[in-house]
Please model this.
Amino acid sequence: MNKKPGILGRSYTALILLFLYAPIAILIIFSFNSTRSRTVWTGFTLDWYRSLFANSSIMDALYTSLIVALISAVVATIIGTFAAIGFHNMRSKWRTPLTHINNIPMMNADIATAVSLSLLFITLGSVLRFRLGFGTLLLAHIIFNIPYVVLSITPKLRQLDNNLVDAACDLGCTWMKAFWKVIVPEIRPGIVNGLIIAFTLSIDDFVISYFTAGGNIMTLPMQIFSMTRRRVSPEINALSTILFLSVLVLLIIINIRGARQEEKQKKRQAALNK
Model:
């Protein structure tokens, strides 16, 4: 029998939430402050948001981050989907070690991944005559996103009934048609989740971008870091507020979508049981 949390438990939870979100709430409030003060409220204004969208360096960095995140997420999702299917169809003696190898980049420190990729690109660049730039930045994001996509799709493949694929082939489908008509619809939630995770990780990354972008490319996290080295301006508060609200909306959409998928799965299982 589950017991409801007492006053102590609820108070402890409230303190944790306050500790986590009070700084964010203060940041959001002072993004509307009419002066640069970070401690005294002097009035409401939207000037810092207007100044943010008028700042060409921030807008260029945002555009670069969005392009890199979108392309890397799509490419990593495609590669990760086929990699996950390949791992799933392997024998256990090969699948287990390769799965562990796939998980290493997720457990590895970002700084180690960033330095290793930087050294790799510099070495290849000296041989193939290219420099760090947009291409190396995009390739680095694709590389570190793939393991997360594989991890998102693998559980859906384990839930997949292999008899469905065999039945489709027996009814005249080629393997490719069975892939698009049977496998992809069954693992689509994992593919979408992997795409969203890859996009979020890419647009939020700083360390790997810093070591692989070179001196001519600036992503949004790098731009924010360069601005905070001088002084935290209200423009950064406004930008952080927009990013926080965007992530909040994305999380709400994911949770609603997940709840609907669970409901559909329950109805489907109930229909099969009947």
About this structure: Residues 234-273 form the longest helix (40 residues). The chain has a mean pLDDT of 84. The two ends are 30 Å apart (CA to CA).
